[in-house]
Amino acid sequence: MKTLTLKNKFQTNATLLPNDFIDNYMIDANGEFVKVYLFLLRHLDDPCSSLTLATIADCLNNTEKDILRAFRYWEKKGLLRAERDADGKVTALELQKMSLSGREASTGQAEQTAGRDAGSDAPKAVPAPETRAAAKAVPIDSFRAQKEIRSLLFIAEQYLGKTLTHAEMETITYFYDTLHMSSDLIEYLIESCVENGHKSMHYIRKVAFSWVEEGIETIAQAKEQSALYNKNCYTVLNAFGIKNRGPASSELAYIKKWAEEYSFSSDIIEEACRRTIAATHQPSFEYADSIMTKWHEKNIRHLKDIESLDEEYQKERIAGRASARSRSAARNLNNFERRSYDMESLEEQLLNSN
């Protein structure tokens, strides 16, 4: 068979991606983080490039905080070095050389850490190949976990603006070890709670538990859930005319009940709130709940269903009024006082008058 010759005539402008990145780093990385790394690689040594955080975010259809999160991830992996100013803002980026594969690097760091922890400078005996393979299989994940937890604790301190207490460190470790939340998801959890004005670890723990109960395992799922939460809360608070505050815990319980248990859309919830204001002239979650509970019992799913229910109610009301008038008239007739007359006496009186 004749040998084929493959020639490349179209790829004049290309980005070189090391196989080591594909084999050892890309596997464990979030897809959005990979996009950021490839974007940086594409613009490496590009004299025409004038990158900013906003530019990268716009090009990748992401937020600036997502881009910063990716920077921190690749810094932890040793593939990126970021220079920051006095305010902590990134001013320059430097892609690092991949001297070892990701797994070999993790193993080397684990061995160095183990040597330091043992407190000995004596050279270590090299185990037999089968023993060495078995040793690598066990501690790599634990050392990686320790490194990720240390990084999480550092990041948490930056977001919360304080040194973590022992209990707070145990809570974050609990998220990682027991709830099996990824380090990226825990970081986003803390970031989103702080952005919403909640720096209490008690509040952060409650949100973490709710995410686990709802099966949230990725940042994308968390963002989707957060968007739905914000939409429902805004709908209710805006309809009630409540400004400059979020819902209280009891109010949030009602909102979640209407949106999740009753599965009402935002337009139905807004209509119930509007009717509440019209009837009570003030925000009342209890009154709105009574309306939506009746709608739920009537299997309301669309605004048209509410219109049909209103028409049925008006017909019943008109029929009830007519029935009430009939009963009232009959009652008046029955109450008419009947008089008794002596007809013979009247006749005698009539004759005598003549």
Low-confidence stretches: 100-140
Structural class: mainly alpha
How many separate helices? Answer: 16
Give the overall pLDDT as a whole number.
78
Order of helices and strands: HHHHEEHHHHHHHHHHHH
General shape: elongated
Strand content is under 5%
In helices, the fraction of residues equals 55-70%
Biggest sheet layout: 2 strands, antiparallel
* Termini gap: 150 Å
Report strand order across the widest sheet: 1-2
Q: Determine Rg (CA atoms, Å).
A: 37 Å
Number of strands: 2
Provide a descriptive summary of the structure in words:
With 354 residues, the chain is mostly helical. It is built from 16 helices and two strands. The protein has helices spanning 19-25, 31-42, 53-59, 64-76, 102-118, 129-137, 139-160, 166-177, 183-195, 201-213, 219-240, 249-261, 266-280, 285-297, 303-334, 343-353; strands spanning 80-84, 90-95. Strands 1-2 form a two-stranded antiparallel ribbon. Strand 1 and strand 2 (90-95) form a beta hairpin. Helix 3 packs across helix 4, helix 7 runs parallel beside helix 9 and helix 9 (183-195) packs across helix 10. It is elongated. The protein starts with 18 loop residues before the first helix and ends with a helix.
Helix and strand arrangement:
Blueprint: H1 19-25, H2 31-42, H3 53-59, H4 64-76, E1 80-84, E2 90-95, H5 102-118, H6 129-137, H7 139-160, H8 166-177, H9 183-195, H10 201-213, H11 219-240, H12 249-261, H13 266-280, H14 285-297, H15 303-334, H16 343-353
Antiparallel strand pairs: 1-2
Helix pairs in contact: 2-4, 3-4, 5-7, 7-8, 7-9, 9-10, 11-12, 11-13, 13-14
